[in-house]
Design a protein that fits this description.
alpha/beta; Rossmann fold; seven-stranded mixed sheet; 8 helices; binds S-adenosylmethionine
Length: about 240
Amino acid sequence: MFDRRGPTFFELARQALSSTEKGYDLLAPKFEYTPFRTPDDLLVQVAPHIGPVDDALDVACGTGAGVRMLKPLAKRITGVDMSAGMLEEAERLCAEAPGVAELRFVQGDARDMPFEDAFDVAVTFGANGHILPADEPAFFGSIYKALKPGGRFLLLTHANPGPLHPFWWAARGFNAAMHVRNAVIDPPFVMFYLTMTWPMVREPLEAAGFEVEARHGLFTFPYTGGILVVATKPA
Ligand SMILES: C[S@@+](CC[C@H](N)C(=O)[O-])C[C@H]1O[C@@H](n2cnc3c(N)ncnc32)[C@H](O)[C@@H]1O
C-alpha cells in the first residue's frame, strides 16, 4: 500500500498536524507514491463515462491524476486545488502526459470557484473526505455554477458499509481521532471517511439543482462496489 518513495510516518504525522492546505503542500513532492493518489486502474474505468468534451474541470486535482486521464478526452482542462505545492507537481506531471488538451491550473477553494457556465464536465477524485457535510451545499453549488447547462459532474463514491463491517469501525475510529485533533489543534485538518456515500449524497446534489443518476459496479472496495454518481445540470 505504501511505496518506499512515499512519505515516512513522521512526514505524514507532520502533515496531519498542519492545516489541510499546508499539509498537502508538504506532501506534494511524494504524493504520487501514496495510496491517497487515485489509482490509474480506477481512472480508466471512469474515462468511458466522459467521452470527448470541449471543456473539463478537475476539482481538487492534486497532482493531476484526473487531469492526465482527461487529457486525451478534452480540448481544454482546468485543474483547481487549494494547495500550491500540489498544483506545482500537477503542472509538471501533466505537461508530459499523452493528449493535446490545453491545460490551466488554478489555486482556489473548491467550495467557491470563480467559474460560471464554463465546463461540459467536472470530476473530483479523492476529495470527498475533505468537504465537511455542512460545506456540501457550497461545494456542489460551486460545481453546479461552473458547469454549462447540460454539463455533467462525475463523483466516485460507495455505499456506507454499516456497523457490521470492520471498515465502518475503522473509519469511525479515524473520524473520532480527527475530531479530537481538530478540537485541540488549530488550524484544522479536514479529512473524514464515510462522507458523500450513496444514496445519502443524492439529496445535497438534488438540492444544488442536479439531476442525479448512479452507475454501479465500476470498481471494488474491500467491502462494497464503487458507485459513479453522474449529476447533470439541466439544459
Ligand atoms: C487526496 S488528494 C486527491 C488528489 C487527486 N484528485 C487524486 O485523486 O489523486 C485531495 C486533494 O484535495 C485538495 N483539497 C482539499 N480540500 C480542498 C478544497 N476545499 N478546495 C480545493 N482543494 C481541496 C487537497 O489540496 C488535495 O490536493
